[in-house]
Amino acid sequence: MIKGNNDPVVRRLSWRLYSLSGDERHRPQHVIHVSSTPLAGHRGSKTRWQKLSRSYKDSVLLVESHGGNNETCPGTAFVVGSRTLFTAGHIANSGVKCVYYDDERLVPDKTHYLNDTKLGLDVAVLEFASNRFSLSRPMQVSFRLPELGEQVAALGFPTVPKRDSAIVMHIGHVESLTMNFYQNCRFIQTTFQSGGGLSGSPLVDESGSVIGIMTETVFLKGMDGQVPSRPYGQAMPVEYAAILRRFPKIDPSFVCPSV
User: Fold this and answer.
1) What's the sign of the alpha-carbon dihedral 11, 17, 18, 23?
2) DSSP secondary-structure letter at 141?
């Protein structure tokens, strides 16, 4: 059965064909402008989340970026390859100071990011020259969109006043699959709140696959510049970061084409 753009495999192969041919006629359109996909065989349990937190504890890393007034802002990144991390675009846009890994402070050799506030794009890829993360388990990514009400979790380093940084697991549900006003950029809204430091965290489903990257800044300010009365947790589908990894110099309009 041919599913077209609703099938993540079709989308992945379309981008691969485009990368090989360079022919604009083969450039995929309307990325992630698709329906959600059920996750079969998983009912959710505390035991499963505990196992996932243990298996990925060395794959989720604390990041420090430059803030205003010479301040340091915490964030999160996660391992997707022996040389590659995914994180949020606004972290990379601010300038990554270091990534903490195995008692070392690492600085990425290359940084690629999409931080387009108009579209809402907010993903980044951090590349390192050597196999820095060969001892960590790469996090498996999935291009599927979750269903409403599906249980998900985020692993990251949210800021807690008067406490040292420590990895935290937030467990909640998918609340909404929203889009921007242009109807060309997808978001995953969650029931748990997203705080400072959680930016760049992997949003995982019950199988342990990363389906999104937490990017709370898109919802921190409303149209009038005020913080909304109810904080929203929000992620971008990880597929956006995977596209950026394959095409580091891609234009945002290619990722979010006009409808």
Assistant:
1) negative
2) B
CB within 8 Å of 110: residues ≥ 6 apart: 126, 127, 248
DSSP secondary structure string, 67-101? -GGG-EEEEEEEEEETTEEEE-HHHHHH-EEEEEE
Burial pattern 199-232, b for ≥16 Cβ within 10 A else e, equals bbbbbbbbebbbbbbbbbbbbeeeeeeeeeeeeb
Amino acid in the structure at residue 215: T
**pLDDT number for residue 219:** 47
Task: Examine the pLDDT at 12 and tell me if it is beyond 80.
Answer: no
List phi, psi (to 5°) of 166: -150, 150
For residue 150, give the amino acid letter. E
Using CA atoms, how far apart are residues 254 and 87, in angstroms rounded to an integer? 20
Contacts of 62 (CB under 8 A, 6+ apart): 74, 75, 76, 99, 100, 157, 165
Sheet holding 60-66, edge to edge: 104-106, 96-101, 60-66, 72-81, 84-87, 121-127, 110-116
Name beta bridge partners: 98.
64
Sign of the alpha-carbon torsion through 204, 209, 211, 216? positive
- Tell me the per-residue pLDDT of 116-129, one tens digit each, with 9 for 90 and over: 888 889 999 999 99
